[in-house]
Amino acid sequence: MGILGARAKLLCRLFSKIIVREMPLSTVSLTCLYLAAGAYVLSFVAFALRKERLTDVCFYGGFLLHTISQVSRGWFIGVFSSYALLEGVFFLPWCLAFLTLCLRFRKNDAHLIYSALIPILLFLLIASLYPKGIVPPSPQGRTVFSSLFFVFEVMAHAFFCLGAWFSFRYLSHRNDTDFFDSFVIWGFILYSIAQVVGAIWSYLGWASLFSWSQRHLQSASIWCFYAGYIHLRFLSHFDMRKKAWVSLAGFLLVFYFSYVSHLREITMPRLGG
Amino acid sequence: MLQSIWRFCGSVRITFYLLMLVSFNLAIASCYVKSNPHIFSPLNNLLLQDWFRLYGKNNFDKIWWLWAMFALLIALGFNTGICTLDRIRNLLTNRYNMDIRVVLLKITPSFIHICFLIMLSGHLLSMISGVNKTIPLTPELEILSPIQAKVTDQHCDYFTSPELLKGHLDQCTVSLKLQTGREELMKQLSILNPFTYQGFTFHLTRAKKSGEEGLQIIIKRDPGLKFILFGFTILILLMLWYFPKLQKNTKGG
Fold first, then answer.
1. Residue ranges of B 186-245 with Cβ closer than 8 A to chain A
2. CA nearest A150: which of A94, A209, A61, A87?
3. Are residues B52 and B164 in the same domain?
4. Which residue of A has its CA nearest to B112?
5. Domain residue limits, chain A
6. Which ipTM value was assigned to this complex?
7. Are B231 and B211 in the same domain?
8. pLDDT tens for each residue of A9-34
9. I need a labelling partner for B81 at 20 to 30 A (CA). Which of A78, B101, B163, B183 fits?
10. 135-174 in A: which are within 8 Å (CB) of B?
11. Model pTM?
């Protein structure tokens, strides 16, 4: 135990010396992102081989590295930028991993839960291909409401994504549980909170709660779609399979709208890469 | 006959299809707004009726979705209203046969619908009434009678560190001398920090005109603001109470 403790201490010291002190934080962020992706891949391989313990260890390790990557991304340009930390392309995979971890602690069905590694890896792949630099912070974005807006919006997207993923599982594996419904409902609640917080931000920065712009209209479209979904529980002829299809369609809408805007942001001038 | 029409108009099935149609309409709208900024950008700075007079009248092929949206939202408003009235009436009639907690749980969706109606009315109010005036920043500002304003100071700060951020805009501040009759007041206005004077809210925003970035002041009186924020906040609080409770009850059988 004593030797193990000493080794752990040495590792920590090495980590802080090599990684934290000598590497710029932008490099720490990128290195940890790729290492996290590697750990998730290992976790997926272990999951495919039905090695539950190894899947857990690799996933927890991957999540730790992913968190370090995400937090250090906040200091990518030398000062803290909440936009860098919460930029959808990078924050969404972290939110997906976080929700998967929470599920793992709450439910026991490892096979169903770790199937979520597939969307996590898909979105991490998109993040790894995306420009890593930061869009210069605008004075209109520097309020707590903008940070809260991105937290709630991206977390809601993660709920919708997992809801769609478990809907897909439900449609393709008849024995899977139908807990995708709870994901969609919580996603809708978080998305509604994002709309209120976003409206306050919009009012402070642009003097209007709602603006006739592509972004606001798309958000309203997503909100109405999921508001429709919420009403399905009162329609007796809509069974869980039909609901699963609607949940899948909803996420396609979210994916299309959010990634169209991310694609547009690729052309923006970026700092640090 | 009348009763079945009433029931049809307030049915949840109609709600679902109307919401899907509104969602589809808004998705189409986002494409029109993106490809016709010269028509739709002014809608952010004008009241609906003024905008329609200046831009909407001659561009029906590009604004048809706006009329479709109004029609759908009015239908949704009626549908929600009828559904809510029906549900509340039924619950009040049967309240003695149910536990008070069950009544509260069952009546919550109706309260959520009332909040939604408040929000919709707020949006309508914001679009057709109040004041929405955009003024480019010049030393002597023409604001709104009887308020007079002078810009006494104006400066922008830029980042000096870290290296990567050098030269990027940090914040802009404008000092204003406001006068109404004999009353004089000095106020500082910066981006994201609006102030209220004589019932009007003053905002400093950035504006892009013919490729160049400048500053502008937006003066606003929005009668729908409180309705939208109040309605949406209560709606969320009710959902935060209702859905976990419903899930708990469903799990508990």
1. 191-194, 201, 203, 205-206, 218, 220, 222, 224-225, 228-229, 232-233, 235-236, 239-240, 243
2. A87
3. no
4. A227
5. 22-134, 136-273
6. 0.93
7. no
8. 666 566 555 555 567 788 899 999 99
9. B101
10. 136-140, 142-143
11. 0.92
